[in-house]
Amino acid sequence: MGLLSLDIHDFRNIHRASLEFSPGLNLITGENAAGKTSLMEAVYYLGRVRSFRTHHVNQPIREGQSAFRLVGRLQHEQGRMIPIGIERQTGSLQVHLDGAAVRRLSDLAGSFPVQVHSGDTANIISGGPRYRRQTLDWALFHVEHTYRDIWQRYARALRQRNAALRAQAPANQITSWDGELVEAGNEIHAIRLRYIEGLVPRLQQELAHLLPSLDVQLGYQRGWTVERDLAAQLQHSLDSDRSLGNTRSGPHRADFQLIANGQPLQSHCSRGQQKAAIVGFMLAQVKCQQDRAAPLGAFLLDDLGSELDANHQARVLDALRALDMQVFVSAIAETPAALPDWPGMKRFHVEHGEIQEVV
């Protein structure tokens, strides 16, 4: 599955663009602030219906305009073309997939899975646990068909329990949600643990190529103490939960950490090594999708040359080449260092929001 074409209307500094993409590498070049990242963001928006640059939903609308519109054509694995359209107006959002209006964004899961490595992706290392959980859960939504429903069950029970805690409800009203919370929470933990067990060897394989001098491990914390099961932990922490007004134990508190040579990656490694490690982590996630025959979309790498020397650029590009999936790479240089031989590669140059295919 990949993106065949994209029509852009009034997105960021891009007034109009109509582009056709390669199923392999799409190289986007241009000076800083030319609009390279805006194009990457538009591709990402088709898959996630949100930006990787801002939480302000109206910000991508071009200055002076009332809406932006994105229209893409997706190549389905069975060869069928699927149109997808997104229009964001101030205060409203319309999404159409294959000719039908999408009422719940969760219904888009799997239509165009897209991963992005940008400046903000460093949050996988330096951000809070919530960002890392979202990274983990996004992958599981695409490789475990039951995961979304289980997570929604857990989230509903958690909301109800927290509401009872904040209302200072009697203990029996609070604990009435524990059964559903424990059942769904244990399922979530079991699925995550199986995924982590499959991810670790893939991660080590990728990082052996990208960062051969480092021994990188992945540490996972499930969200409650190892001394008790979840049911016992919820009962044990009931008084403190009532005092704080929220549930402090469960898979919604899980976290993971990348560890290099026994030390946290962010304190042990240079920024270039950290960027390469994050790329390796994301590549490992894609390989896990491939292992499970899950739909693949596109891998976006924004600003290739930032913090990566020529040697690491070459290793990253070589690893991306081996993915056998659609890739978008942005760079300032017209020809990044050691660009691999990539059949069918397309080049695009961006200048002041104008995008031209380089033939």
Mean pLDDT over the full residue set: 90
Q: Main sheet, how many strands, which sense, barrel?
A: 6 strands, antiparallel
What structural class do you assign from the helix and strand content? alpha/beta
Name the strands of the widest sheet in spatial order.
2-1-4-5-6-7
Tell me roughly what share of residues is in helical segments. 25-40%
What is the CATH domain class of the largest domain? Alpha Beta
Question: So, the CATH homologous superfamily of the largest domain?
Answer: P-loop containing nucleotide triphosphate hydrolases
Unreliable stretches, pLDDT < 50, 5 or more residues? none
The total of beta strands comes to 15
Give structural attributes.
alpha/beta; globular; 359 residues; 15 strands; Rossmann fold; 11 helices; Glutathione S-transferase Yfyf (Class Pi), Chain A, domain 2; 24% strand; six-stranded antiparallel sheet; six-stranded mixed sheet; 2 domains
Structure description:
The chain is of the alpha/beta class. The chain has 2 domains: 1-113 and 295-359, Rossmann fold (3-Layer(aba) Sandwich), CATH 3.40.50; 129-294, Glutathione S-transferase Yfyf (Class Pi), Chain A, domain 2. It is 39% helix and 24% strand. The protein is built from 11 helices and 15 strands. The chain has helices at residues 36-48, 123-126, 129-143, 147-166, 171-175, 178-210, 230-236, 238-244, 265-268, 271-291, 310-321; strands spanning 2-11, 14-20, 25-29, 67-75, 81-89, 92-97, 100-101, 114-117, 216-221, 255-260, 263-264, 298-301, 326-331, 346-351, 354-358. The chain has a 6-stranded antiparallel sheet, with helices on one face. Helix 10 (271-291) runs parallel beside helix 11. It is globular. The model has no long low-confidence stretch (mean pLDDT 90).
